[in-house]
Specification:
Blueprint lengths: L2 H16 L2 H4 L4 E2 L5 E18 L3 H6 L11 E20 L2 E6 L5 H26 L7 H7 L9
Antiparallel strand pairs: 1-2, 2-3, 3-4
Length: about 160
């Protein structure tokens, strides 16, 4: 086996240990009241490996005309760069699951992300108000359809 192959195999084995599924989808974090938060990250990876057989200084000075690769010493290296950026957090409590983005480019992005939460809050507030009243809530459309015409209104 050539030494470059050995460097590549060793590097790839170590990369498998560094970047596994738990790096991208993190381990769950348990909070109060049964809340569970799972971090989700983006992993970027850069990798370079190489090497070759190079003559020693004594051989280079002589200017050896016949190249025999087996007689030269091997020089090789591998380099890895890893970037891990959190992208979102998955929040679960009871039957409700919410995705909280970790990167918002602007206020408008954040407002758009909050629309489903705001709609759920408004819906639950209306449901609570209806539950407090004795008669069931009617929507404005239902109320307009069921209303009797006024006595002085013309047909």
């Amino acid at each position: 086996m050539h030494p470059v192959e050995t460097i590549l195999q060793t590097t790839m084995r170590e990369l498998k240990n560094i970047v596994d599924v738990n790096t991208i989808v993190g381990s769950p974090i348990y909070g109060e009241g049964g809340a569970v938060v799972i971090p989700v990250s983006r992993v970027c990876l850069g990798f370079f490996a190489g090497g070759g057989d190079f003559p020693t200084q004594a051989v280079a000075k002589k200017g050896a005309p016949d190249f025999d690769a087996g007689s030269y010493p091997f020089l090789g290296a591998s380099v890895v760069g890893v970037s891990i950026c959190p992208k979102a957090f998955l929040h679960m409590q009871g039957k409700e699951v919410t995705l909280l983005h970790a990167d918002c480019d602007s206020t408008l992005d954040r407002l758009v992300q909050l629309i489903p939460t705001a709609m759920n809050e408004i819906r639950s507030a209306i449901t609570d108000l209806c539950a407090q009243r004795e008669d069931p809530c009617e929507t404005p459309q239902d109320d307009a359809e069921n209303r009797e015409p006024a006595e002085d209104a013309e047909p």
